[in-house]
């Protein structure tokens, strides 16, 4: 199954941000949901967040709450990580370094509402889809979809795979994904600079047959990062990613002893 946690662009009416919408939109993993939208026709479920990641980031720990956002101290469990310290916790304080999202403080009630309405349901549905896969097939293969700003340079990777340093999926699954991408001509890096965050941490359990892998696609492959418009290469990339999913399915169907189920 696939999930795209950061491609949402339905900006809720109660967001009340104090920066330019265009700056918020640059934080989206733009069009990732659309790039993979042929997967369900191949039998692969695709879960997409509709809300933008700056509103509430489902790829953060639920306690990663930034005290600087709040009008009064948080009542309840709170454990701000270095992501919160940088301004990109559960609710982002900054849209990029030095540029605040809000010109106001947020109430605990407001953040709790975002958790209850969007964060918790996203994780519940994701969990249910993985449970279904384990029930039906004995294991779940999950690809957590993202896009990344292009870092530039001739040696920069097109795609970065993340398995939190070898802890979130079996080697066979990782190598199958990596090798299919390389065969299609993409330059692939592993865990550098993106290892995977809360979604992988929370939902993966390779020893129980739950294999989660993060994929970050460089935006330069399909969009103009300044204007946020798709480039003419978008169609090719989308077709490649559909083909990539199809190749993985073929690999799984032909490899009868794929050693991925729970041990
Ligand atoms: Zn992302």
Throw out a few tags for this protein.
two-stranded antiparallel ribbon, single chain, 263 residues, Aminopeptidase, alpha/beta, globular, 8 strands, six-stranded mixed sheet, binds zinc ion, 7 helices
CATH superfamily grouping: Zn-dependent exopeptidases
Number of domains: 1
Average pLDDT over all residues: 95
CATH class call: Alpha Beta
Give the H and E element order: EHHEHEEHEEHEHEH
Instruction: Report helical residue fraction.
Output: 25-40%
CATH architecture: 3-Layer(aba) Sandwich
Query: What is the strand content?
Result: 5-15%
Model regions low in confidence, pLDDT < 50 over at least 5 residues? none
Number of helices: 7
For the biggest sheet, the summary is: 6 strands, mixed
Spell out which ligands are present: zinc ion
Query: What structural class do helix, strand and pairing data support?
Result: alpha/beta
Radius of gyration: 19 Å
Widest sheet, order of strands: 2-1-5-8-6-7
- How widely separated are the two ends? 21 Å
The total count of strands amounts to: 8
According to CATH, the fold-level topology is: Aminopeptidase
Q: Which outline best applies? A: globular
């Amino acid at each position: 199954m696939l999930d795209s946690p950061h491609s949402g662009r339905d900006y809720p009416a109660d967001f009340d941000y104090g920066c330019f919408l265009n700056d918020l939109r640059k934080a989206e993993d733009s069009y990732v949901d659309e790039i993979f939208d042929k997967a369900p026709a191949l039998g692969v479920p695709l879960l997409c967040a509709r809300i933008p990641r700056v509103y509430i980031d489902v790829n953060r720990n639920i306690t990663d709450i930034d005290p600087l956002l709040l009008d009064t101290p948080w009542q309840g469990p709170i454990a701000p990580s270095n992501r919160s310290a940088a301004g990109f916790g559960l609710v982002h304080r900054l849209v990029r370094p030095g540029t605040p999202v809000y010109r106001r403080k947020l109430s605990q009630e407001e953040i709790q509402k975002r958790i209850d309405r969007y964060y918790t349901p996203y994780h519940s549905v994701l969990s249910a889809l993985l449970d279904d896969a384990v029930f039906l097939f004995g294991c779940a293969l999950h690809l957590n979809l993202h896009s990344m700003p292009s870092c530039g340079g001739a040696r920069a990777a097109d795609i970065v795979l993340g398995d939190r340093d070898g802890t979130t999926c079996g080697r066979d699954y990782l190598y199958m994904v990596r090798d299919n991408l390389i065969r299609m001509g993409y330059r692939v890096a592993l865990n550098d600079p993106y290892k995977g965050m809360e979604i992988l941490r929370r939902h993966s359990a390779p020893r129980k047959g739950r294999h989660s892998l993060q994929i970050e696609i460089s935006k330069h492959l399909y969009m103009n990062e300044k204007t946020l418009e798709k480039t003419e290469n978008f169609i090719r990339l989308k077709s490649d990613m559909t083909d990539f999913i199809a190749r993985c399915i073929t690999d799984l169907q032909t490899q009868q002893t794929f050693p991925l189920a729970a041990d």
